[in-house]
Design a protein that fits this description.
Blueprint: H1 11-16, H2 34-47, H3 54-61, H4 69-75, H5 80-90, E1 98-105, E2 108-115, H6 121-141, E3 150-152, H7 162-168, E4 172-173, E5 180-184, H8 185-189, H9 197-212, H10 220-231, H11 239-245, H12 250-259, H13 264-282, H14 287-293, H15 299-310, H16 314-319
Parallel strand pairs: 3-4
Antiparallel strand pairs: 1-2, 2-5, 3-5
Length: 326
């Protein structure tokens, strides 16, 4: 946001007003309260000669890598629908005051932004910047030109809409009942161009290694584990989703697994643990990224689960020497 303010404003002073040293290393754990942030945006908007376009400029400047593990979720998905669904699951890594929701619609889907509180000017600016960044990153990752079907904001329209109309290139509805982007079915299904090759290669190698170790690769429990592993980076699949992949009902899959001495949750936990251990020992991905790729929306939840599985923290496991094969 500060990078996009007008040149004659003192950017270092703006950062220090939030308690952030301009030249200090980026620390994702350092949070700014929502009220301080909104006041900060209001200060900039008043000081600028064209504060109306500030959120649009900030949104246009955002890149996937600026979001760390959250950005990894966007660019490693196979298409925009996958990007949005991952964002819905992983948003709490970025902030504790807003969430995303993907809602099916007749024309495609709404990508909702949910943020509670007093709808002061600062929140309006923040909401517009977030919606603008969703459009910007969608344009970056899609293999086809991306334009939303419509944009919705709960707050009233600014006096001058020229910048908004030029940026979004679609109908914009103010005083709406939602803050959201409406995206077409075609755009949602378009493949992403920034799929993370290293992640894809890792998953392929991991799954091939697991297949090679199976005495009977056609056994149902093994096929379920492999399918679950493929799905984890987009969230833990439900038993109904997995059953559908194998052309059976969730109840049938549960019964057949039970006959083999397994539960679905046991196989999910085994898949997550095995993948987590491999990621921790064979890659340099951060703990937050490992948590994301194993189906957790928060690093803290991943840490608790891993301690339950392995009897030690993920960090300790990563630092310990790998076990020698028997």
């Amino acid at each position: 946001m500060v990078g996009e303010v007008e040149a004659d404003l003192d950017k270092d002073a703006l950062l220090r007003s939030l308690g952030i040293e301009p030249n200090s290393p980026v620390d994702p754990s350092q949070m700014v309260s929502d009220t301080d942030y909104y006041a900060f945006l209001e200060k900039i908007a008043v000081a600028e000669t064209n504060g109306t376009t500030l959120p649009l400029r900030a949104g246009a400047a955002m890149r996937c890598d600026d979001y760390g593990a959250f950005g990894l979720a966007w660019k490693s998905a196979t298409n925009l629908r996958g990007s949005y669904e991952r964002a819905e699951r992983y948003a709490r890594v970025l902030t504790s005051v807003s969430t995303y929701e993907v809602e099916r619609a007749e024309q495609g889907a709404f990508m909702h932004l949910h943020r509670g509180g007093d709808r002061r000017l600062g929140m309006r600016i923040s909401n517009e910047a977030t919606i603008a960044s969703i459009v910007s990153i969608s344009q970056q990752v899609s293999t086809q030109p991306f334009t939303p079907l419509a944009i919705y904001f709960k707050h009233p329209a600014p006096k001058d809409l020229e910048g908004h109309e030029a940026y979004f290139g679609c109908p914009i509805h103010f005083d709406s009942d939602r803050d959201a982007v409406l995206v077409s079915h075609a755009s949602l299904q378009t493949p992403n161009q920034l799929g993370d090759e290293s992640i894809s290669q890792f998953f392929d190698t991991h799954l091939e290694a697991e297949l090679s170790k199976l005495a009977d690769p056609n056994a149902l429990e093994h096929r379920v584990r492999i399918h679950v592993s493929r799905c984890l980076s987009e969230g833990v699949p439900t038993i109904s989703d997995v059953a559908g992949h194998f052309s059976m009902s969730g109840r049938t899959l549960q019964r057949r697994l039970s006959e083999l001495g397994y539960s679905y949750q046991t196989l999910v936990d085994a898949s997550r643990r095995q993948l987590a251990e491999r990621l921790l020992q064979q890659t340099n991905y951060s703990l937050a990224e490992v948590a994301f790729m194993t189906g957790f929306s928060e690093q803290s939840a991943f840490t608790r689960a891993f301690k339950r599985w392995a009897g030690q923290t993920p960090r300790s496991f990563r630092l310990s020497p790998p076990a020698k094969p028997d």
